[in-house]
Amino acid sequence: MLYTLLIYGDPSAAPDYESPEGQAEMQHWMSYTQELAESGQMKAGEALHPGQTATTVRVRDGETLHTDGPFAETKEMLGGFYLIDVPDLDAALAWASKMPNIDYGSVEVRPVVSFEQ
């Protein structure tokens, strides 16, 4: 079954990636991604640029509106995702709990809808 692991975190709580602590966390991310890929369960995954680089698009009353920044004001921002193919929710939750930012961020686990049933 396909699941997305949506990675959220408060940018102010994340380590500075120029610091030794930040470099260690980056290595942890690389190791985590490698382990997930080698398991054969990773289908895709990407880091995202910070939320302030986003543009939100809405169409209201026929008018297209572009707004700089994310849709909602929040402390935690979507920082990236993994798409995994695992047997069940418990397996997806196990991968989520091993994420490097789990101590200061959160991971939203969502099943992917299959329209080919």
End-to-end Cα distance, whole Å, is 12 Å
CATH topology title = Alpha-Beta Plaits
Q: Judging by the overall fold, what is the CATH architecture?
A: 2-Layer Sandwich
Number of extended strands: 6
Approximate shape = flat
CATH superfamily: Dimeric alpha+beta barrel
CATH class: Alpha Beta
Q: Into how many domains do the coordinates divide?
A: 1
Strand order of the largest sheet: 2-5-1-6
Order of helices and strands: EHEEEEHE
On the 0 to 100 scale, the average pLDDT is 92
Give the number of helices: 2
Q: Give helix % range.
A: 10-25%
**Major β-sheet, in short?**
4 strands, antiparallel
Alpha carbon gyration radius: 16 Å
Regarding quaternary structure, how should these chains be classified? single chain
Describe, in plain words, how this protein is organized in 3D.
The structure is a single chain. 24% of the residues lie in helices and 36% in strands. It has 117 residues and is an alpha+beta fold. It has a single domain (2-111), classed as Dimeric alpha+beta barrel (Alpha-Beta Plaits, 2-Layer Sandwich), CATH 3.30.70.1060.
Give descriptors for this structure.
117 residues; Alpha-Beta Plaits; four-stranded antiparallel β-sheet; two-stranded antiparallel sheet; 6 strands; 36% strand; flat
Write a concise synopsis of the structure shown:
This protein has two helices and six strands.
Write the layout of secondary structure elements.
Elements: E1 2-9, H1 20-38, E2 42-47, E3 55-60, E4 63-68, E5 77-85, H2 89-97, E6 105-111
Antiparallel strand pairs: 1-5, 1-6, 2-5, 3-4
